[in-house]
Amino acid sequence: MDLTYLHTFREVALRQSFTRAAEELGYAQSSVTTQIQKLEKAYDVQLFERFGKGLRLTSAGEELLRFAVQMLDLYQQSKERLGNQSGGTLSIGTIDSLAAYFLPPYLQELRERHEGLSVRLQTGREAHIFKQVKDGELDLGLILDDEPSDPTLAWQTIRDEPLVLLSSPEHPLCREKEITLEHLAGAEWIMPEESCNYRIMLEKALKQSGTPYVIGLELGNPEAIKRCVMSGSGISLLPRMVAAAEIGRGELVSLPFAHPGLRLTLLLAMHPKKWISNPLRELVDRIRHAAV
Questions:
Q1: What is the mean pLDDT of the chain?
Q2: Which of 76, 121, 163, 268 could staple 156 via S-S, CB 3.0–4.6 A?
Q3: Cα(171)–Cα(253) distance, rounded to whole angstroms?
């Protein structure tokens, strides 16, 4: 069997689309369809099923995906071991803020050092990232949380990431020398989505202290949150890396606020049996070194 078929199958499974897989691989969609049909004939199973306009793996497809990931990983390992290659594909799962404000310089540097390397960067919720790391679909996961949450994964603590309380320069809270939860009573918040872990931490602290609060806006994009804080009367809590540039330019103010229940750590998760390619080792080492 041609390993190309398994590579194509993995792309369709990850993207849940024949069309998007074809675009990523540079194939005609008919070629992708033919390769999947040949796989289904070889194994005498149906690998995908359609629901509405979507596409998902059958139980047989889920089983084959686990084998395909391992086989492609072993193939890449053999290439590096025998030919000292540094190409292949590096798959990383992370959250929006790290994808936008932390990872880009490291990934660019890595691709400059390894011209044949392809990097696949996927963003999503933490639980989905953990599942993909455990299933071998991702080489590593990078998240912000207060502590490791899945004991079946191998974790590395990279650094603490401060959470900052943000406002526009004209906000009344800017006149305070020190801000406590009492100062925030009745404040209008511009919040990230409900599943965001630092929003969960914030709301827990406010509720435990009995501090009333108002959610004026709920947005899923950190850039949108910053724009709304700059142009309105609301405040927000974000990782410092997200707003460092705007704070430096004076467009946002980091208010003098701290709370022991509001802390984040930059965490890296991998499968404990993950084979470490040269590019992956370099990326992990570079991230850890830069955090010291």
A1: 90
A2: 268
A3: 9
